[in-house]
Amino acid sequence: MSSNTEAQESRGDVFKWAIVVLLVAAGVVGNNYFSAESLLYRLIAVLVLAIVAGFIALQTVKGKAFFTLAKEAKKEIGRVVWPTRQETVQTTLIVLAVVIFMSLVLWGVDSALGWVVSAVIG
């Protein structure tokens, strides 16, 4: 019984995704076809089509899973312990110092190898 329900949901999802693809295609083609019209009108039309396509996509199994993931990610962001301003500045300065040091080392190695190759080639 469960597999039958899943198969019906899968068929329904295919139909919904087809509608989403058609709406996105209509937005792209319509924006190109009505290129002589005002940008504001075309933007409004594309936004309306995008909202409708997004709403339909969220009604599918994968769309619901994505929405759940987004809600959980938002909760997780609230739990993150963000660094203080001082920690951020110190870390940034350390990264800059390491980048400058490594660039000087690589420049020195490149120059030395270039000098060696020039001496060998003549």
Describe this structure in words.
- By secondary structure, the chain is an all-alpha fold.
- The protein has 2 domains: 1-80; 82-122.
- Helix content is 88%, strand content 0%.
- It is built from 4 helices and no strands.
- The protein has helices at 2-33, 39-57, 61-79, 85-121.
What is this structure, in a nutshell?
Pfam families: SecE. Keywords: Cell inner membrane, Cell membrane, Membrane, Protein transport, Translocation, Transmembrane, Transmembrane helix, Transport. By secondary structure, the protein is mainly alpha-helical.
User: Average pLDDT value?
Assistant: 91
Biggest sheet, open or closed, and with what strands and sense? none
How many separate domains make up the residues? 2
- The radius of gyration computed from the alpha-carbon positions, rounded to a whole number of angstroms, is 28 Å
* Helix-and-strand structural type: mainly alpha
* SSE arrangement, N to C: HHHH
Write the topology of this structure:
Blueprint: H1 2-33, H2 39-57, H3 61-79, H4 85-121
Provide keyphrases for this structure.
0% strand; Protein translocase subunit SecE; translocation; 88% helix; mainly alpha; transmembrane helix; single chain; Translocase_SecE/Sec61-g; 122 residues; protein transport
